[in-house]
Write a structure and sequence with these properties.
The chain has 176 residues and is an alpha/beta fold. It has one domain (4-170): Flavodoxin domain (Rossmann fold, 3-Layer(aba) Sandwich), CATH 3.40.50.360. The chain contains 5 helices and 8 strands. The chain has helices spanning 28-40, 57-70, 102-108, 132-139, 160-170; strands spanning 4-8, 13-17, 20-24, 43-46, 88-94, 117-124, 144-145, 149-152. Helix 4 links the parallel strand 6 (117-124) and strand 7. The longest helix is centred in the middle third of the chain and has 14 residues, at 57-70. The radius of gyration is 15 Å and the shape is globular. It starts with a strand and ends in a 6-residue tail after the last helix. The structure holds flavin mononucleotide. Flavin mononucleotide (FMN) binds next to strand 2, helix 1, helix 2 and strand 6.
Length: 176
């Protein structure tokens, strides 16, 4: 039986949804990561930065842009050290300026992906997967890659059937 790990980053608070600002009680990616776990099981690991990003949407976009420009690696509250017990790794995050927040790479770079199957999951407001699959391929050396899933962030709460169908297929349970 394959063992799944769902790594995710998600930011609650003010965000852009279908063209207007909205305060999210639960982040879009957090919702999607929960559906994934419900669908295929496995462990959830949340990436959290020591320093919170701004609650204000526009201030946060500035912070994220600067981190991207610097290719920064923000400090995290805790790090996952090993993937040894897992077969499938789902990497879930919001699209920030076309790719994952730098905090996601701060975690991924510490792990050995040799022989693991990696799948990108991105929530977004129009950019789809952006460059996240190419970025994962650069960082997760030795992994094999499944097909990524882009979820429109504003539809996260109603994405369960989409996420479940995709996850069961990618995690190899479609014909089980
Ligand atoms: C800092 C920042 C940058 C963003 N950049 C993009 C972007 O380049 N393309 C896009 O489609 N959406 C972008 N968005 C929208 C988010 O990707 C989208 O709302 C996502 O679902 C948020 O997920 P979360 O609630 O899990 O953090 C951005 C949002 C933030 C806060």
């Amino acid at each position: 039986m394959e063992k799944n790990l769902i790594i995710y980053f998600s930011r609650r608070g003010e965000n852009f949804c279908n063209g207007s600002l909205k305060k999210l009680e639960k982040g879009n990616t957090e919702i999607v990561a929960g559906f994934l776990q419900k669908a295929v099981g496995g462990d959830l690991f949340e990436i959290e930065t020591v320093k919170n990003y701004a609650a204000d949407y526009y201030a946060c976009t500035d912070e994220a842009k600067e981190e991207l420009r610097q290719n920064a690696r923000p400090e995290l509250k805790r790090y996952l050290d090993s993937l040894e017990e897992y077969d499938n790794i789902f990497v879930c995050g919001p699209c920030w300026w076309g790719t994952y927040p730098m905090a996601v790479f701060a975690q991924l770079e510490r792990l050995d992906f040799t022989g693991k199957k990696v799948m990108a999951v991105m929530t977004h407001e129009g950019s789809g997967l952006g460059s996240c699959e190419q970025d994962l391929k650069r960082i997760c050396k030795g992994a094999v890659f499944g097909k990524g899933l882009a979820v429109h962030g504003a539809d996260a709460a109603v994405s369960e059937s989409l996420v479940t169908a995709w996850a069961e297929k990618e995690a190899g349970k479609a014909f089980a």
